[in-house]
């Protein structure tokens, strides 16, 4: 038997596995690296986060990704450039992992598996692209898993979203699987709210209830428009730290209404979207419709913060009624934004807002941790069906396996 296949067979039978989860989101701030010890599988999964780091991207890395991100800055992508970027990102992520392991003084041979999400550069669910010649959902993540595996010497699982699509899903969000296994409670219904570039939440029924009622949905822009607007007006800044600029501004009601008029917001959850839809042109069109082309940066950020909060609340009320009373645990960059958190509390007054740190998972590490969980399930678990509406898919395991040699 191939030694790597024998290794996988051995790992599947062990009581625990040491897995590194990797996540690079639409905010393009860097690579999240989470070294996890995972015991068991399924609802018996127990996780210990041994180490975590966000390795920041340089301006050059961000520039390279933005050349193809969501269709590129001019709606044109160089095919040769895209082809070269795929292995280049794989090697970059591999080197970042190795640097983390050196800093943590852990040999790569002591890591059992590596779970690499890759970098999403385009997300195209059918309801968004609406091309009759391609009646299917699609998504594209770069950062080739074979390059990661060979460079690190660690068996790598990657390209998780394709199986979800192949089985009838939209490829995003995938959080329902990991959230359900790690963070379900027998005592309370929970809403796990991820405030990344695109905001999404997972609803978790109490353990013992029907798993088909659990689901994940995107809600709209989280930080993507906020960060892009800051960069456009203040090139020296990557984002609005602690929401200070937004806090100094005033929400423009006319612009907010124009932004919320997009049909995505009235579509029933679960649904998916991305920066392909919520981009600079979407904002520009709303400003033209509302006559706010000259709106100052602070007022613009205040309005976009309100948009993020209002669209989360709208999706929550669509799913759970006008006065939802849920415990909400936030993660992602927006969990650190007091302006956004305050707006969310205004829109969801009957909900108790907290962060996933209260559940034992650092808000910044949560998505990387969830991909480690998916890798653990692929190797040692049983397929599990979770979902509702058009997102519901048959029980599947996700992740393509790349062997180091």
TrEMBL record:
**So what EC number does this one have?**
2.7.1.170
| A GO term, aspect molecular function | kinase activity
What residues bind ATP, as annotated? Answer: 25-32
One Pfam assignment:
AnmK
> Looking at the keywords, is Transferase present?
yes
Q: What is the protein's known function?
A: Catalyzes the specific phosphorylation of 1,6-anhydro-N-acetylmuramic acid (anhMurNAc) with the simultaneous cleavage of the 1,6-anhydro ring, generating MurNAc-6-P. Is required for the utilization of anhMurNAc either imported from the medium or derived from its own cell wall murein, and thus plays a role in cell wall recycling.
Q: Can you state which reaction this protein catalyses?
A: 1,6-anhydro-N-acetyl-beta-muramate + ATP + H2O = N-acetyl-D-muramate 6-phosphate + ADP + H(+)
Pathway of this protein?
A: Cell wall biogenesis; peptidoglycan recycling; Amino-sugar metabolism; 1,6-anhydro-N-acetylmuramate degradation
Identify this protein by name: Anhydro-N-acetylmuramic acid kinase
Q: Which family does it belong to?
A: Belongs to the anhydro-N-acetylmuramic acid kinase family.
Q: Which InterPro entries match?
A: Anhydro_N_Ac-Mur_kinase (IPR005338), ATPase_NBD (IPR043129)
PANTHER family recorded for this chain? ANHYDRO-N-ACETYLMURAMIC ACID KINASE
At the top of the EC hierarchy, this enzyme's class is transferase
Q: Which GO terms describe its biological process?
A: 1,6-anhydro-N-acetyl-beta-muramic acid catabolic process; amino sugar metabolic process; peptidoglycan turnover
Swiss-Prot/TrEMBL keywords: ATP-binding, Carbohydrate metabolism, Kinase, Nucleotide-binding, Transferase
The answer to keyword Zinc applying to this record is no
Q: Which CDD domains match?
A: ASKHA_NBD_ANMK (cd24050)
Which Gene3D superfamilies does the protein's record reference?
3.30.420.40
Top-rank lineage group of the source organism: Bacteria
Q: Which residues form a coiled coil?
A: none
Which SUPFAM superfamilies does the record match to this protein?
Actin-like ATPase domain (SSF53067)
């Amino acid at each position: 038997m191939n030694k790597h296949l024998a290794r996988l067979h051995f790992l599947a039978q062990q009581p625990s596995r040491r897995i590194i989860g990797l996540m690079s989101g639409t905010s393009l701030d860097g690579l999240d690296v989470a070294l996890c010890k995972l015991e068991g599988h399924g609802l018996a999964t127990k996780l210990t986060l041994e180490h975590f780091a966000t390795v920041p991207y340089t301006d050059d890395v961000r520039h390279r990704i933005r050349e193809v991100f969501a269709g590129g800055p001019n709606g044109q992508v160089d095919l040769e450039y895209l082809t070269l970027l795929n292995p280049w990102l794989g090697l970059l992520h591999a080197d970042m992992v190795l640097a983390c392991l050196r800093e943590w003084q852990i040999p790569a041979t002591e890591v059992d598996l590596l779970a690499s999400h890759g970098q999403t550069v385009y997300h195209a669910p059918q309801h968004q692209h609406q091309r009759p010649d391609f009646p299917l959902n699609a998504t594209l993540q770069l950062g080739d898993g074979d390059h990661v595996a060979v460079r690190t010497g660690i068996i790598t699982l990657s390209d998780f979203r394709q199986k979800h699509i192949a089985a009838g899903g939209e490829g995003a969000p995938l959080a329902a699987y990991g959230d359900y296994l790690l963070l379900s409670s027998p005592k309370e219904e929970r809403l796990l709210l991820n405030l990344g570039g695109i905001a999404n939440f997972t609803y978790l029924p109490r353990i013992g209830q029907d798993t088909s009622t659990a689901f994940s949905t995107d809600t709209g822009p989280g930080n993507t428009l906020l960060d892009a607007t800051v960069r456009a007006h203040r090139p020296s800044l990557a984002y609005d730290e602690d929401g200070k600029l937004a806090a100094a501004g005033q929400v423009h009601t006319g612009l907010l209404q124009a932004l919320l008029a997009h049909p995505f917001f009235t579509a029933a959850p679960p649904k998916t979207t991305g920066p392909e839809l919520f981009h600079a042109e979407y904002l520009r069109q709303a400003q033209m419709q509302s006559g706010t082309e000259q709106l100052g940066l602070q007022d613009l950020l205040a309005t976009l913060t309100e948009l993020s909060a209002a669209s989360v609340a709208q999706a929550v009320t669509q799913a759970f009624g006008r006065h939802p009373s849920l415990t909400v645990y936030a993660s992602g960059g927006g969990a650190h934004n007091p302006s956004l958190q305050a707006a969310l509390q205004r829109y969801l007054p009957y909900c108790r807002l907290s962060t996933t740190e209260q559940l034992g998972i650092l808000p910044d590490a949560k998505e990387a941790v969830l991909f480690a969980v998916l890798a653990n399930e692929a190797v040692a678990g049983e397929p599990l069906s979770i979902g509702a509406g058009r997102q519901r898919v048959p029980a599947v395991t996700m992740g393509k396996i790349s062997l180091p040699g």
